[in-house]
Amino acid sequence: MRILSAREVAQKTSFSTGHLRRLAKENKFPKPVQISENRSGWLESDVDKWIEKCVRSHSVIREEKDV
């Protein structure tokens, strides 16, 4: 299990850290886990699953357009 910093998640998703936090607050992105009093991060597995879900959704939409 690996915990990613906001910067690492931003690089992985190409979203800004502020946008990631807004999405998490709106329940549209995994919420970060509290590591210590002043530090939080995202589970890499949660971020990877979210990306896979986006890719699958995109693929379904593309397939529907091709029909």
Query: H/E order of the elements?
Result: EHHEEH
What is the count of DSSP helices, taking H or I runs of 4+ residues? 3
The counted number of beta strands is 3
CATH class: Mainly Alpha
CATH architecture group name: Orthogonal Bundle
Shape by Cα distribution: elongated
The averaged pLDDT comes out at 91
Explain what the structure shows.
There is one protein chain. The protein is of the alpha+beta class. The protein has a single domain (3-66), classed as Multidrug-efflux Transporter Regulator, Chain: A, Domain 2 (Orthogonal Bundle). It contains three helices and three strands, in the order E-H-H-E-E-H. It has a three-stranded antiparallel sheet. Strand 2 (33-36) and strand 3 (39-43) form a beta hairpin.
What are the main properties of this structure?
67 residues; Multidrug-efflux Transporter Regulator, Chain: A, Domain 2; three-stranded antiparallel sheet; 3 helices; 3 strands; elongated
